[in-house]
Design brief:
- This protein is mainly α.
- The chain has one domain.
- Helices cover 74% and strands 3% of the residues.
- It has eleven helices and two strands, in the order ααααβααααβααα.
- Strands 1-2 form a two-stranded antiparallel ribbon.
- It is globular.
- The two termini are 26 Å apart.
- The N terminus is likely disordered.
């Protein structure tokens, strides 16, 4: 609504109207699912770029900043509530996700070792310093990646095309995003798209909780690092060193556990189980159901704002 006097409107409202139209157009773009998703991914990505390789607790502090960016974009730009990052119940989801991540890595590593693909030896590095370094590094990586791919991308795509399409698209995007890692190739991208992209996507739809998938992701990466296994082509300092034997299809080669056929097959089993659980819990949604959920979330946010 224009509340300016008529004379002022006639004298100089043309540029202002153009500016208002531009801002309105930008606002409509940002409020659309792909708009706020891209804006949010850019913001979290910038935080990650500035903090991921920082010393000491910097990556973990970057994770805190990334959560703040997520909250602001979702609440102020997308106009929706954020139950997926709520503090209530977060501890339970962290423990649950971490347990699944730990079992996934340990069972995979044990089976590869039993088939002769791995042998481990104590590295002799400082115990506490290695654990501290791994925890800080992997906290930053896990939280920022989950906010970008499961928090922003998956939920936006779900509103556009439904849960199933969102899982496929974000899984492929996650695999492509890892093509820049050392030793990456077509097989590594496909393996990560399935066992990380699709599995973490289905895990999010099951629990509808960022803390759950971030913890699963964190424990997965941290366990690999502490065992001395390369994490997506990177070989940071761990508690053990690992020697690989036999086929790279078994042991993953220089890229690490993710390109071994063993965790790929285990991830398929987990995907099927969590997909069924997500369906039973109502986590799998059609496009119409996802948009209806978004409208309910927006209404909740407006009510919450009114109460304040």
């Amino acid at each position: 609504m224009n509340t300016q006097p008529t004379a002022q409107h006639n004298a100089g409202s043309g540029p202002n109207e153009d500016g208002d139209d531009g801002r309105s157009r930008l606002g409509r773009i940002l409020r659309a699912p792909l708009g706020w998703a891209l804006a949010g991914m850019a913001g979290v990505g910038l935080v990650s770029a500035l903090t991921a390789t920082g010393p000491g607790p910097v990556p973990a502090l970057g994770a805190v900043a990334a959560v703040a960016v997520y909250w602001v974009v979702m609440r102020r730009v997308a106009g929706r509530a954020t139950p997926e990052v709520a503090r209530r119940g977060a501890g339970r989801e962290v423990l649950y996700g971490g347990a699944i991540g730990l079992v996934f890595v340990l069972v995979s590593a044990l089976l590869i070792t039993m088939f002769g693909g791995y042998s481990f030896s104590w590295a002799g590095n400082g115990f506490l310093s290695v654990i501290w370094s791994a925890a800080m590094l992997q906290t930053g990586a896990a939280v920022t990646e989950e906010l970008m791919f499961r928090g922003f991308a998956l939920q936006a795509l779900e509103q556009r095309w439904g849960s199933r399409a969102a899982i496929v698209i974000t899984g492929l995007l996650f695999g492509v995003a890892h093509l820049g890692a050392p030793g990456a190739g077509v097989w590594s991208a496909l393996a990560i798209a399935l066992e990380a992209g699709a599995m973490l996507g289905v895990a999010f739809l099951w629990r509808r909780n960022i803390w759950f998938v971030a913890s699963l992701h964190f424990v997965w990466n941290t366990s690999e690092q502490l065992l001395g296994i390369p994490v997506s082509g990177h070989t940071p300092q761990g508690l053990f060193t690992v020697d690989t034997h036999g086929s790279a299809l078994l042991n993953g080669g220089a890229f690490g556990l993710e390109t071994s056929i063993v965790p790929v097959l285990i991830s398929v089993l987990l995907i099927l189980v969590m997909f069924v659980l997500a369906g039973r819990s109502g986590g799998l949604r059609t496009r119409r159901a996802a948009r209806a959920e978004k409208d309910r979330s927006t209404g909740h946010l407006l009510t919450e704002g009114g109460e304040k």
